[in-house]
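Record format v2
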Amino acid sequence: MKDFIRNISSGVAKIPQWALVFPIFILMLFHYFTVFDQKSGENETELNAVPTENEMKVFQIIDELPQGSTVLILVNYGPESKYELESAMSALIGVLAEKNIGIAFATMIPNGIESAFTAVEKSIENGNFGKERFVYGHEYTYLGFIVGGNIATYLIANNFDKVKERDIFNSDSDIHQPLMSEIGNISDFSAVFEFSSQTFDGIPGIVSFAVMLKEQNVKKVAFCSSDMLSAYIPFRSSLYLDGLIGGFRSIAIFINEFQPSLKIEKQYRILSIIIFYIIVLTIVSNLIGLAAKDKK
Amino acid sequence: MNIFNDLGTTTALFLTLMVFSGFFKLNPLYRFAESLFIGVSAGYFAVIWYFSIIKPAFQSALHGDLLILIPLLAGLLLFIPSTSEASYSKLRFLPAAFIVIVTTAINIPIYFSAFIQEMIRTSIIPLVSFDESGSIQTDMTINAVLSIVSVTSAMMFLVARHKNSNRFVNTTGEIGRFFVLVAIGSAFAYTLLSRLILFMGKIEFIINVAKIGF
């Protein structure tokens, strides 16, 4: 019996890496061609995930944002988290634009510049604004790249009028950005949102703004990728953040609530099956490994 | 038809396939895509840093803001070779020490507040949760008790690693080791999930390009 298990174990060890990834690839293709390719326009699958109290809090914050106010969105993710965060950001931009809330984009990482541009383009392509035009300078603006990570941001948060002086295209904000005319300080925003796939020395970018805004009535909400969730939860627990949408499950719930046309529930379903495959693979391989192990 | 968009999409498709070919075996196509990615990234970041930091700094200096020369000088000090035996070579430690001290001074209060003070507070308050009818909320209470056990035992694990004389500390430390492993496993699983979504996105990209055609 022991030899039989050892034979299985050595056989399993010889399976090449690509053969383990191949089923994931097949699963994705199968679902894209059986589920995604239908032109019915109806939701064939449903998102079997109920919003938690934390997610409901974020919905409430967005619902309660005053019309005509301005929010700051920090775009701190690059291409590595594009597929996780871009749809959520596009959904948020759509909701804010529909409520006539101005958006100022800024980034603390070089890759964030491109991410902000593509998210706005995606929102415009999706046409989820409930309006025909989305005018730069009037409804949204790019403040550009805030250099220096958290240390610089602490200083900038105190002296925000310097940041908003010129946009990313080096245009004078007084002339070209009527949106920023009433923003003199960071506390003039009704909310600060962050879309992030990284921290700065272990501290999220939005926290440096939250430190300055802790006692003020500016809502702080973070959207983070799955791999950053464990870094963000302590800051939500300690109330530096008013809301947190972290990980694909929360993001799927958020998108399903605000932009159901993106049909995130199908991606969610594929991912669930793949994760189930990985869990089975892990358990089986560990059981074989344990059974084949010599007892001392 | 936008030829540049199509060219970009086609290039992206072939580069994606080149990178995926690394699953089977390391090959020249994979190495080419890898080297190209590193080179393009380095170039992109160099341009961003130049236009975001170096150029504005020099412009400020030229317009009379001479304070900018201090960080410029500090930056130049970092270039003193570590092998240099000249008496001034130790000056290179000054900017590095400044960065470490300022970062630590700013981050410690936030770390202490978020990771220690508030984590312990939210773990134990309230220890026993009641719902509106006055009965105990089992899930929340178990969660609070589990939080205390995990936080305390994980701390004991760190103590037991260095000084294992006390049997109680060792036993509790072993329980803590379990929670530490659960935490590391969760972090790893979240990272895997994130990469899977990225993989899924790239597959979707390939399918979409294939559907639309070149």
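The CA atoms of residues 164 and 250 of chain A lie 32 Å apart.
Chain A has one domain: 53-262.
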